[in-house]
Prior knowledge:
The structure is a homotetramer.
Chain A: E1 2-3, H1 14-22, H2 35-47, E2 54-58, H3 61-72, E3 77-82, H4 86-89, E4 102-105, H5 114-122, E5 131-138, H6 149-161, E6 165-170, H7 173-177, H8 186-192, E7 195-199, E8 209-213, H9 216-219, H10 222-228, H11 236-246, H12 251-272, E9 276-277, E10 285-286, E11 288-291, H13 295-301, E12 302-303, E13 305-310, E14 313-319, H14 326-339
Parallel strand pairs in A: 1-12, 3-4, 3-5, 5-6, 6-7
Antiparallel strand pairs in A: 2-8, 7-8, 9-11, 10-14, 11-14, 13-14
Amino acid sequence: MINLRNDYCGVCHPKVLDALVKKSTNVYVGYGLDTESSEAENKIKKLINNNDASVYFTVGGTSTNKIVIAHALPSYGCVIACDSGHINVHETGAIEATGHKVLTVPNINGKLTSEGIEFLVNGHPDFHMVKPGIVYISNSTEYGTVYNKEELVSLSNTCRKYNLYFYIDGARLGCALTSKVCDYSIAEMAELCDAFYIGGTKNGLILGEALVVTNRKLNEDIRYAIKCHGGMYAKGFVNGIMFNELFTNNLFFDIAKQENILAERLYNELRKLGIKFLFKQETNQIFPIFNSDIIDELSKKISFEVWSKEEDMTCIRFVTSFLTTNEDIDKAIKVIKSYL
Amino acid sequence: MINLRNDYCGVCHPKVLDALVKKSTNVYVGYGLDTESSEAENKIKKLINNNDASVYFTVGGTSTNKIVIAHALPSYGCVIACDSGHINVHETGAIEATGHKVLTVPNINGKLTSEGIEFLVNGHPDFHMVKPGIVYISNSTEYGTVYNKEELVSLSNTCRKYNLYFYIDGARLGCALTSKVCDYSIAEMAELCDAFYIGGTKNGLILGEALVVTNRKLNEDIRYAIKCHGGMYAKGFVNGIMFNELFTNNLFFDIAKQENILAERLYNELRKLGIKFLFKQETNQIFPIFNSDIIDELSKKISFEVWSKEEDMTCIRFVTSFLTTNEDIDKAIKVIKSYL
Amino acid sequence: MINLRNDYCGVCHPKVLDALVKKSTNVYVGYGLDTESSEAENKIKKLINNNDASVYFTVGGTSTNKIVIAHALPSYGCVIACDSGHINVHETGAIEATGHKVLTVPNINGKLTSEGIEFLVNGHPDFHMVKPGIVYISNSTEYGTVYNKEELVSLSNTCRKYNLYFYIDGARLGCALTSKVCDYSIAEMAELCDAFYIGGTKNGLILGEALVVTNRKLNEDIRYAIKCHGGMYAKGFVNGIMFNELFTNNLFFDIAKQENILAERLYNELRKLGIKFLFKQETNQIFPIFNSDIIDELSKKISFEVWSKEEDMTCIRFVTSFLTTNEDIDKAIKVIKSYL
Amino acid sequence: MINLRNDYCGVCHPKVLDALVKKSTNVYVGYGLDTESSEAENKIKKLINNNDASVYFTVGGTSTNKIVIAHALPSYGCVIACDSGHINVHETGAIEATGHKVLTVPNINGKLTSEGIEFLVNGHPDFHMVKPGIVYISNSTEYGTVYNKEELVSLSNTCRKYNLYFYIDGARLGCALTSKVCDYSIAEMAELCDAFYIGGTKNGLILGEALVVTNRKLNEDIRYAIKCHGGMYAKGFVNGIMFNELFTNNLFFDIAKQENILAERLYNELRKLGIKFLFKQETNQIFPIFNSDIIDELSKKISFEVWSKEEDMTCIRFVTSFLTTNEDIDKAIKVIKSYL
């Protein structure tokens, strides 16, 4: 079975696991107040060229989103997202469970636009409606697309204009930043928003996300929110060790870039075979469309997720991970060819 | 520095880490639906001799408590605990953040009693007050004490009498079950309650708790609650691998028992030196009382937490972990002797 | 100034106020457990021909919606509504503040359809997404339209098929039931749903809604939810007296019918003048569309709300209330004519 | 039957009802933005001698408490109260339903002390515990006692010292301010706190409380919180009319004072008969203690609530209301005498 189901399918990148093994007899203080976390934080602050930022290592994407959004909003505040946003669709109401509405506009290729934000802000003028307080995007998006710099600048300006926090869910930030279409550095992105997280779970770690907060007001007392919303990790130093390794010798970017390259190769080969895609390939997720009658057979040889169905065509999702090899891609192409 | 600060101070027990390394090139499906989780679940079901139970591997204690309690209660329902209960004191309002009151009575040696439950139930007779719906205890308790069988049977009967779920926080369940004062098996305990969790974080794992649900009604749709309350672990198979190893060759119990033995030795030696304790030693936490003027010096040689102060006496907490050795205990005794 | 702004613009219908004055020296028990509430409840149960129903008199529409929806749902449950639903737009996130997502589909003339429900239910198949648990409609709708029997039967069947509660917000139920297009009685409607409320605030009372619960499971412990979500009225007997009067000699229906008739007359006269409307008139709300340049002048003579603007046209809303007279309508027509 | 059960037993004070009748053909705008509300607000601002204050007319005590507390706190914040506080006991978890813990210390005669606040603040030093953000007291208290000026000043200073909002639940504020033991004016009290509400429901109105906010930061956007937490009253002008009347010719104080005088007379007469009380009489609630064996008989002649039982003695509560007369008190004394 060729695995193209997701990017959280393997335990851990070997270098990260080595680091854990090497440090497994050490003793650390808990709750992220340890030296490894502190070192990892400093590396990230250097990377984004912002010594005033704060970095917190949390346990997962959904709980990180809960923490930031619940922390940013007053009780009647809402978060703006596009309809395909992870917080709107795939978190079982986790944001609403903290008491806040997710206000949405239709996505454009998985993206939220400044026009969308303006439309929602203008449509919510008084106390009979929720008050927008924070904007959420994911980068790369749920559809594997990447915001370009112009789009981010525009979103950032719109947020500042309307006094909204700007928060970026970076579950797959590595793949966004190493995409061939990406025209900015992580430091440039960090300047444009108030908080973002660097996804570890989908970039080779056992678990863990690095929440980076650059807005001082948003940063205040945020450890309380982390604990209250269930995202505090007793053995925070494990995250510290892993992120420390991830930001050593460029590993974070190397893992992501390799995933992008493999996805691109698969995408190009399939296009040569005449296969259509729901979106252009930009990162490690691609969405080929097949005749529905081959899906069952295909799924016996390749592991993937079905994305959507329309009459006799079915769109599926292939995702490359840190475990994916060139051989996997060769085999996948061969299998698919055999069904065309 | 001798570490007696807590039991979540080291990365992972070597056997568990070995298992992760061995399986680190495997590919798994996400969200706990993998074969490792399934194997680990089966081992736990066998251990408690209950084939109808369900087991879920979650990311941490606070979020597991949130999940179970929020899942068990209607919007106006409350959870009963003793005042020293972890959910009442050390979770930054995580339970209240799900909308529910923690209703408390004073603890007796860290324990909740049936009389306490009766008192609260009788004091909350109508719709002007919250409605008790679930009872929470931790075993071992926050004070390191262990419920005996008679106490658990009594609590269980009281819960059934008043139609309350009975839930046991087992963050340190290993130490409770392997305590010299424990007079029941995990299977006997499981029969008395509706749900409990087996703590991994404080028993040698990188992270993770095994939530065991034996009540069928409580079990319904609980995966939704796990995701909604931020406790779903994308790489659930990592927990699967770790718990699988933990319940191989008695490792879970061996780790805990060794911690208890070391704590007991330290306790006995200190008592011989005339030192008083806040509670009798039953598990891996002990609470010696020293003259306040030696605390500062002591803390330069031994890492520990200050528990409480009263005038010129200070109670501190020593905790043994899977990393603690006989040599650590020897050294600690020597250091303490030097200050008496 | 001619008032056509809303139907909650005057203190109280004179007959209801008389009843309050007459009974103002009586002594009652609190919290709706009084004889007046009990009499009013019996009248409503007789009206819907259901002796097993329960009726609760609450303080307002938003809090009644909060109560029913929060009571119906588990922590990860969501409510289905159409996008124009009051709970989705005009309650400042009151439903989300109880922890629940409002899941929406586009409205058809202000209405939710069975197809919409099916679409949402099928799109939410597993624990990664919220679980639909209750369906919300308002009747009459936010656009003044009325569900016909076929539509209600279809919605009811769909709810039963998918094990969803069916709840009707009747803030303007009087106007729906007395609409010329309504083809069912309140008893027939009551049979099709699990709970609904009869709006008093917008039908001549000082305040108050009558929440009717016909589903036994939903009814369980609901007084706790009423208190917990802030909808318990200490002087419940005031609601009792008012609803008692409202359901004496058909007053509830007479008030609503008169409002409908006046709105219809205004609608017909304006149509004769060539004015277009956003929706057909069915109840006491009508939505004429004018050239934007007359709106300012019009607003000096008539009080109304602006509904929406598109380029040079503006849709406004006229609402008749228990205070509206035939003379008001005459004057309004005359004013409008003068601007055409 | 002599009614001494509570102070929310009658529809409305006749003068207030007259005002409603007189204005019942007027047309007003909704949601408290009307002229009557504005006039009433101005009267209250003049009364407290603070032109910068804001006043909002809400529907009930529990929802007003929800609004203020949820508005004042971040997601991990908690409210400090004494254990007998209304929000802790008699609101069915309404505060917790907004996500916040009620942190308590034992009351002293129904009161919270500065020492109690200090104890809780010092016991909650870091992010593992909830963060105190607002202090709640009721005046008069649940036991009918009244804070004196020294106590209020001390509480106020403690709140300022620890950066806590200070909020006073004035459900029975009239009775506190007109108590013979009260040594401050409403203006002096207003200066010491950040927000308080003036109870209308228990002081002769059909319903309604006047929330007075003097702290500018707390005032920001509070209308959103009022709507979100279900306390917005569509016909806000009804509250406006009633409070306008209540603060005309001293009516608010006259109603309360008369209640206090009647309660004092009953208290003094019963003490002459040798009856003991749980608390000294200070306002309109008194708590006599009788032999338990006469309670049943007594309850056939007088309507009251049982407060607490201890062995063969029972404490009951008598409350005077705007409907209570001197004759009621005479009769009550006569009845009680007949059982001694």
